DNA sequence: TTGGAATGTCAACAACACTGACATAAAATC
DNA sequence: GATTTTATGTCAGTGTTGTTGACATTCCAA
């Protein structure tokens, strides 16, 4: 099964099934490490990853609406609502009725919510910082390139929306 | 705050909180893409990701014991057992009592199990192949380096165990 | 042979996703 | 102004996957 024409086999060795399998397992094991530290913090608060995700994206886009959050998180409103309800009850998130469109609820982190967000993201950044430092800037660039190529196009949109620093 | 000594600030720009945040979100969005294709296949079989993981690692190490699998998957034996039971009932996995130690059960994929494994891994490889191809070999190398650095040490052990192709 | 450790199974429960149905309020449209 | 659509929230029910607790079996060693 020769590829195109001029492309020699040598430069495509990284596409063997064996290499791809290693990549798949690397994603599995790395994601576990990636979520391990926040998970430990969340346990103390009787929260789960769903709460983490909500807090993260409300922090990223203060005043975002429920619908916006639904699109980013890719869950049902019932599922998100359960999470938001507990976060609001616990005083970590504030929900304000929209001024222009009163149907919308705009979401903000309270002081306590920001404190939890900082604790969670600090733990996660610490691990990622260590991994970045160990791998070096060149590797980080490749890491980001592959991850972006692996996203669904719609998700890449949400990802790009928050882009500020030059890639 | 100065690192070692000679390291100039310039070369550490990739460690800014903003860059780390982008990395965190990239992991989140990419992992969703990474699991999306197998998830669709699993739906048809009324299985979940836990079944996928079990099938994957039994395929990787035929004859592995339940305890072995537990260490890799990082769940309780009760949780794994439920998944294995359904896979065995459905004829995808065979459980053989150990010959030397009759307490152990050795796990194998049946023909049907291998067929499902192929379908799942094919879907996942297809996406990863596309991402690898888009990013190029250099990027793939960096991708793998960062992921390995992000794993918990114990998980990296399990990862390395299956290493065959030179990194 | 008795007791402890390892291995695996069964039962019950919690978190978090899902679907479906429905209620409310406001905006948009006719 | 009446109707439809949109945005949000809620209730009920279900499924997957994690948990703990209790227990059976098997092996090994005192």
Label the structural class of chain A: mainly alpha
Largest sheet of chain A: 3 strands, antiparallel
The helical percent of chain A reads 55-70%
Poorly predicted segments of chain A? 1-6
The strands making up the biggest β-sheet of chain A line up spatially as: 1-3-2
Overall pLDDT confidence of chain A: 89
Order of helices and strands of chain A: HHEHHEEHHH
| Strand runs of chain A, count | 3
Most extensive protein-chain contact, per-chain counts: A-B, 65 and 65 residues
Number of helices of chain A: 7
What is the CA-CA span between the terminal residues of chain A?
A: 35 Å
Oligomer: homodimer
| Percentage beta strand of chain A | 5-15%
Radius of gyration of chain A: 20 Å
Overall geometry of chain A: globular
Explain this structure to me?
Two copies of one chain form a homodimer. The first copy, chain A, has 167 residues and is mostly helical. In chain A, 66% of the residues lie in helices and 7% in strands. Chain A has helices at residues 17-45, 49-60, 66-73, 77-89, 111-135, 137-150, 153-161, and strands at 64-65, 93-97, 105-109. A three-stranded antiparallel sheet of chain A has the order 1-3-2. In chain A, β2 and β3 form a beta hairpin. In chain A, α2 crosses α5. The two termini of chain A are 35 Å apart. Mean pLDDT of chain A is 89; it is low at 1-6. The structure holds a DNA duplex (30 and 30 nucleotides).
What is this structure, in a nutshell?
The structure is a homodimer of 167-residue chains. With 167 residues, chain A is mainly α.
Key descriptive features of the protein:
homodimer, 167 residues, mainly alpha, 3-stranded antiparallel beta sheet, disordered N terminus, DNA-binding
